[in-house]
Amino acid sequence: MSRWHEMLSAGHPIKGLVREFPESERTVLQSQNIKSILAIPIMMGSKFWGFIGFDDCHSERIWTGVEVSILHATAASIGGALARKRAEDELIKAKEDAESADKAKSEFLASMSHEIRTPMNAVIGLTDLLQGTDLTPEQHDYVETIRSSGNSLLSVINEILDFSKIDSGKMELESVHLN
Predict the structure, then answer these.
(1) How far apart are CA 11 and CA 43, in angstroms?
(2) Contacts of 140 (CB under 8 A, 6+ apart)
(3) To bridge 36 with a disulfide, which of 61, 120, 126, 153 should be the other Cys (CB 3.0-4.6 Å)?
(4) Are 124 and 151 in contact (CB under 8 A)?
(5) Could you read off the pLDDT of 48-90 as tens digits, one per residue?
(6) Where are the beta strands (DSSP E) in the chain?
(7) How does strand 14-17 pair with strand 47-56?
(8) What interhelical angle do 137-168 and 65-131 show, nearest 10?
(9) Per the confidence metrics, is the pTM higher than 0.85?
């Protein structure tokens, strides 16, 4: 039935009296007692999806324009519904993928921020200890720059952690009374 596939894929209907069909098709259809047939392609956009049809097993029938129109409208409705369902499924998958990527990003930020914060606290703590030793004024300025820069970097890291807590819904709000 390759002729059927070619015609339907091109958007053309198949209709007529079975006795007028090529022998290979006639054999298949007559074995099911089909005397006349009308098949309309179901298209999703420009892509052939399947077909819908009428057949008559009691008499040879010439299909009317109204019957053809009804079947065309039905096929178009089915094709539209299939396309909408496919688009909906793709949107759901894209949303799930985006949510998964967002979760991975938040977990990565939280993990990396903790990994960076620990050594940064050590750098700041050691600079505080170093400032308590005998240093030249120039060395004291260097250590103060290291400590100040470390504190600035730690502040940025803590803000990243706060954002990842907000993203994950783990941020706890504090209620404080003020004047």
Answers:
(1) 7
(2) 131
(3) 61
(4) yes
(5) 999 999 999 999 999 999 999 999 999 999 999 999 999 999 9
(6) 14-17, 36-44, 47-56
(7) unpaired
(8) 150
(9) no
Give the closest residue to 13 by CA, choosing from 81, 72, 79, 76: 72
pLDDT > 90 in the chain, percent? 65
Residue 123 tokens read as 């750098």
Q: Are 21 and 55 in contact (CB under 8 A)?
A: no
Say whether pLDDT at 122 is over 80. yes
pLDDT value at residue 109: 77
Q: Give the separation between CA 171 and CA 162, rounded to whole angstroms.
A: 7
Q: Which residue has the tokens 């990565």?
A: 108
Helix-strand-coil percent breakdown of the chain, rounded to 5? 65, 15, 20
Looking up tokens 């958007």 gives 11
Token pair of 179, please?
């004047």
Return the structure tokens found at 61.
Answer: 């029938």
Produce one character per residue of 62-88: b if its CB has 16 or more CB atoms within 10 Å, e if not: ebeeeeeeebeeebeebbeebeeeeee
